[in-house]
Amino acid sequence: MAAAATSCGPRAGAPGCVVAAAGKDSVTSFQRRGPRASGPDGGCRRLASIAGTRPSVRNGQLLVSTGLPALDQLLGGGLAVGTLLLIEEDKYNIYSPLLFKYFLAEGIINGHTLLVASAKEDPAEILQELPAPLLNDNCKKEVDEDVCSHKTPESNIKMKIAWRYQLLPKMEVGPISSSIFGHYYDASKRIPQELIEASKWHGFFLPEKISSTLSVESCSLTHGYRSLLHFIQNIICEEGFDGSNPQKKEKNVLRIGIQNLGSPLWGDDICCTENCNNSQSLTKFLYVLRGLLRTSLSACIITVPTHLIQNKAVIARVTNLSDTVVGLESFIGSERETNPLYQEYHGLIHVRQIPRLNNLIGDVSDVKDLAFKLRRKLFTIEEYCLISLIFN
């Protein structure tokens, strides 16, 4: 079809004139005039150029995936760069390490730089235990079999428990391409060794840092927290994640993972007594950490044993200093573990806080009742609602 143009009078060539064109390369009439950014995406090219990221459709904030597409959906599309995600550990610390490892595995798949900190496990050993990604369509059959194998036979008998077992919108279960935002992982397999060797990561293992001598400062931070803050700050500055020293290659994102923060292993006593001597140490650490995150291309996930913290005021301050807070409630050791109404799931997941970025309110999910289940291969988050008992 030949191109057609309509003028708006004698000043048809003026900047404010609207020109409509039809053809193969036609675009919307309301197009900003002026120099365009390199690339087909124009002004959004700068954000999309970082692998494994995408801009939020709500506020334009750059997002990274948590490694669980279902959790990304609950958080408004993903975890915003420059923010902190706090995972409240379950009672026996069985399921919270999975979310921690999914976050790190997603970084390896997208070529992000990792910073892994722990006082319990060697970061090198944590990387060896990361789940394997499902990247090709050949794995879809295995995933479907995994879902089908966990369907209970009670659905075919006369007495049925009417649950609203329904995945949240866009919470499809299945493998996807590595070029798509967010991936699925096989919890029964380990990530290939060649992917770990090709990745760039930094480890902070607290027992190896104890021998170093640091003078006691008036900031009331424990030795472990001070050492970790210095380590994070050095990585951010030396590798240019704060923009002070431009990175030699393409821009990248730093994924920071801190395990069991606030536990006695970090030298903190908030889990030991209600009136502890270093009650401000953890909150001051989070305050400084958020400052580092806000001024750099980085995203952080931390796991905290909040069920062990004696002082509830400390929990409230920790929550306020975090951008996103997600709690895991396991059924292990509770009466729900043997309750037939909950036999399909392993626990509940609570989205306690959503960040407010560039707006006055956060993106709160309409779904309040969420449960999780660890299948043979997949960790899934689903919506549940007990309706009634139906007898046929």
Automatic annotation (TrEMBL):
BP GO annotations: tRNA wobble uridine modification
Keywords assigned: Cytoplasm, Nucleus, tRNA processing
Coiled coil: none
Family matches, as InterPro entries: Elongator_complex_protein_4, P-loop_NTPase
GO CC, alphabetical: cytoplasm; elongator holoenzyme complex; nucleus
Primary subcellular site in the record, as a coarse category: cytoplasm
Lineage: superkingdom: Eukaryota
Subcellular localization(s) per the UniProt record: Cytoplasm; Nucleus
UniProt key word Cytoplasm: yes
Pfam families: PAXNEB (PF05625)
Pathway: tRNA modification; 5-methoxycarbonylmethyl-2-thiouridine-tRNA biosynthesis
The protein's role, per its UniProt record: Component of the elongator complex which is required for multiple tRNA modifications, including mcm5U (5-methoxycarbonylmethyl uridine), mcm5s2U (5-methoxycarbonylmethyl-2-thiouridine), and ncm5U (5-carbamoylmethyl uridine). The elongator complex catalyzes the formation of carboxymethyluridine in the wobble base at position 34 in tRNAs.
Family, per entry: Belongs to the ELP4 family.
Oligomer and partners: Component of the elongator complex which consists of ELP1, ELP2, ELP3, ELP4, ELP5 and ELP6.
Protein name per UniProt: Elongator complex protein 4
Organism: Equus caballus (Horse)
